[in-house]
Amino acid sequence: MTVTVRFAPSPTGHIHIGNLRPALFNWLYAKKENGKFILRYDDTDVERSREEYAQSIAQDLAWIGIQPDVVEKQSDRFASYDAAAEKLKEAGLLYPCYETPDELERRRSRARALGRPPVYDRAGLKLTDEEKAAFEAEGRKPHWRFVLPNHDGDPFQTKRTEVTWNDLVRGEQSVDLASLSDPVLIRADGTYLYTLPSIVDDADMGVTHVIRGEDHVANTGVQIPIFKALGAIPPVFGHHNLLTTHDGEGLSKRKGSLSIGSLREDGLEAMSVSCVAVLTGTSHAVEPFSDLHALAADFDLTSVSRSSAKFDPAEIVGLNARIVHDLPFEAVQDRLEALGVSGGEAFWQTVRGNCEKVQDAAQYWQIVSGSIDGEIDDEDRDFLKSARSLFPEGDVTVDTWGAWTSAVKSETGRKGRGLFMPLRKALTGLSHGPDMKDFLPFIGRQNSLDRLPE
Ligand code: GLU
């Protein structure tokens, strides 16, 4: 059986690094198992779903390196959901309820006041045809609930009923169906809540493994009996912890926080975003991997921790720097060209160790190819004049810096920081940066002489 997973975002906003976590967990799982990855847009909420968001999700996934084998849209599949709902109704497992939200809230408050769990009392199941007709005559439209199998034949005598599964992340899990209200599958306006379409799709699309956030654990307890009621075999489930910022705040699509698009526009590498999204909150160190294949090889859902996955957005920049330091020229050639950096492979090798982001190379290219605000302190002026007069003849090579600074050292008696720092600041305008031995040939003779006082 082919392992089949899906990533099922609602296209109601741009995805952020927290949404990328299940996308990558599923993708890496599929890679590891030689399986199939479905991108499914959960767009049953036609009001809030937008085509532009679906496109932005596809673009973000492509940037990360996720290429879905299949793309599906729930809005194309209403006929299947209607058929499933019909099947449940015929089996007496989906029943109409006429309470308004206010009435339901009052019942819940009453139950809480009496110290009872605020579980729906299945009043809808007791309605006679006449009572239903009376509600309809009042203009009320029913919403529809699924009867959870938490009884032995009499739905008003519920009993503890554990639904258990062996979670890929959390191990043995169980949810007591007697502690839950019968889930509403269809709203009064006829629209579907997430639960039923998701089950119908997972069953129809042959999804074998559902890997999603731990905010869906209770849903899983509800969904397993619905799979069974529809005659489908429930998939294997895995629920991972959720990414939060350091103050414990969850990420939200609406806040636009750490959207994949904004990270891309900030010039971060897709792999640093991926490594942080996947490795945070696991027993694995958050460290660089060169590509998703390497990450997949090391990836193991059992290393995901049970507690929340807190991270500091600054970690992405730190990891990005580590990744950039090792990026080969071929990986950045096009981007350097677009930035106007034309120093070729040797230039990239010289500056990459000082780049947090690839675009930082442009700043070093400006130093070698344009004008700079060189810094000269008054007390260094005479020293720099002597240095200028000692600049070696001939081509500037990787040996020039060593030969030049030895000559300057003998002439002026300066050494260490006092020798090197004024030269670096005058020639680059910076107090730190690429190794001067390698950088000087790019700065060249003329720039060097022009930047030193005569
Ligand atoms: N659209 C759902 C969500 O984004 C999918 C959850 C699932 O994977 O089943 O939460």
List keywords for this structure.
binds glutamic acid, Glutamyl-tRNA Synthetase, domain 2, Glutamyl-tRNA Synthetase, domain 3, alpha/beta
Low-confidence stretches: none
Helix-and-strand structural type = alpha/beta
Strand order of the largest sheet: 1-2-3
| Mean pLDDT over the residues | 95
CATH class term of the largest domain: Alpha Beta
Q: What about the largest sheet?
A: 3 strands, parallel
What is the overall number of helices?
Answer: 19
Q: What best-fitting shape do the alpha-carbon axes yield?
A: elongated
Rg from Cα: 31 Å
**What name does the CATH topology of the largest domain carry?**
Rossmann fold
What CATH architecture label of the largest domain applies?
3-Layer(aba) Sandwich
Instruction: Work out the count of structural domains.
Output: 5
Q: How helical, in percent, are the residues?
A: 40-55%
Distance between the termini: 78 Å
CATH superfamily of the largest domain: HUPs
Bound molecules: glutamic acid
Proportion in β-strands: 5-15%
For the secondary structure, the number of strands is: 12
